[in-house]
Specification:
By secondary structure, the protein is of the alpha/beta class. Helices cover 55% and strands 11% of the residues. Strand 1 (2-4), helix 1 and strand 2 (25-26) form a beta-alpha-beta unit. The termini are far apart.
């Protein structure tokens, strides 16, 4: 058995650790590239959203490398994600690929339901062995999320942006190669010390909240590496979701770690008090939460035609006005271009910098 899975951010680090512990070979799909997108666009329905097209491209590339089993998460509700696995399976079958697909559905109540789903993939794997493997993978996932937060916190103020980018890439590789929890923790501590020592500039730094659809936030191949672009514009980014949040809240129903999900839903209630699928309600909740924390601005991102985010966008204008926080929405599809994205980001940051400068002048009595 040679397992592959969708490419979503740095998720492959934890998935590789999980299946390595279970003595199962993994063939991660290559990082999302122009070829990945071209394959997905060629063989997917025209009006399918961008994540489905990228997933199709991921699977074609991984199957070409020798994968014979695909792991895919299931879903439910108004968001089309719940249909991805079935549609992708039909597309790949029509293309003549031979493979097995395992769809991991979120458990109704007990975490052991999910563990049993995973256990069926391996041969002669006990529930205890599965639990041990999941624990190690979870530790790596949390380490990756922490390292991503360090990167987002230090890139904006850094004098040498390239040094931060290089250290970030090296750090991900070191976490990936660590073979036990203690080694993961040791390497992460050393990396954090290194990134803290990179000199900082004295220019104004903005704090921006990034909200929107989970895949577009987590996968830089679909958002044109927006976090790096903003960091190089002297912005500190705070995301509304990280991979461990998605696993805990979506696959594990919030049962593994304490979540702030209910707090975010409460923040959204004056504006959107119903679940609309995907992360539409969370987009509004985090927008309110970031505004109350006095962030300088918000950027909402998502795939073109994403219904939950379209619902959220229709409400963000009111949130922006009443909460006093500027907001910009960006949708991505295969027709997006880096030049136009760069121009919009630079214009938004220029506007926020002018606003910040005017506030400082006003407070100083100038």
């Amino acid at each position: 058995m040679k397992i592959t899975f969708p490419h979503m951010g740095n998720m492959q680090i934890a998935i590789k650790a999980l299946f390595k512990e279970l003595k199962i070979e993994t063939i991660p799909p290559p990082p999302v590239s122009q070829r990945t997108l071209e394959l997905g666009v060629k063989y997917s329905p025209e009006f399918a959203c961008l994540p489905l097209k990228v997933n199709v491209g991921n699977f074609i590339e991984a199957l070409e490398l020798g994968a014979d089993t695909i792991i895919m998460a299931g879903g439910w509700g108004p968001c089309r994600f719940g249909y991805y696995a079935q549609i992708e399976r039909d597309i790949l079958n029509d293309l003549g690929f031979t493979f097995d697909m395992v769809i991991l559905e979120a458990p109704e109540s007990r975490i052991t339901d999910l563990l049993n789903q995973l256990r069926l993939i391996g041969e002669k794997v006990s529930l205890w062995q599965m639990g041990k493997a999941v624990n190690f993978a979870w530790h790596k996932l949390k380490a990756v999320d922490y390292w991503e937060k360090c990167y987002e916190r230090y890139l904006g103020p850094a004098l040498d942006k390239q040094a931060v980018n290089d250290l970030y890439s090296r750090g991900l590789q070191q976490i990936d190669e660590a073979d036990c929890k203690r080694e993961v923790t040791r390497r992460l501590q050393k990396l954090e010390t290194e990134i803290e020592q990179i000199p900082r500039h004295n220019k104004p730094v903005l704090n921006i909240g990034l909200v929107g659809e989970v895949y577009t936030i987590l996968e830089p191949g679909t958002n044109y590496n927006i976090i790096r672009q903003l960091g190089e514009l002297n912005v500190i980014i705070s995301r509304s979701i990280y991979m461990s949040d998605w696993v805990n809240d979506h696959l594990l129903k919030g049962k593994l770690i304490k979540s702030n999900h209910q707090h975010i839903i409460n923040c959204a209630e004056p504006y959107l008090n119903h679940w609309v699928g995907g992360h539409g309600q969370e987009t509004i909740g985090y927008a309110v939460d970031f505004a109350r924390q006095k962030y300088d601005g918000l950027i909402q991102i998502g795939p073109l035609t994403c219904m939950p985010e379209i619902v959220a966008q229709s409400i963000l204008g009111k949130v922006s006005t009443e909460q006093g926080i500027p907001c910009m929405t960006m949708y991505f599809d295969e027709h997006s271009g880096s030049a136009g994205i760069n121009t919009r980001l630079e214009a938004f940051i220029d506007m926020l910098n002018r606003k910040q400068c005017q506030q400082l002048m006003s407070e100083g009595g100038f």
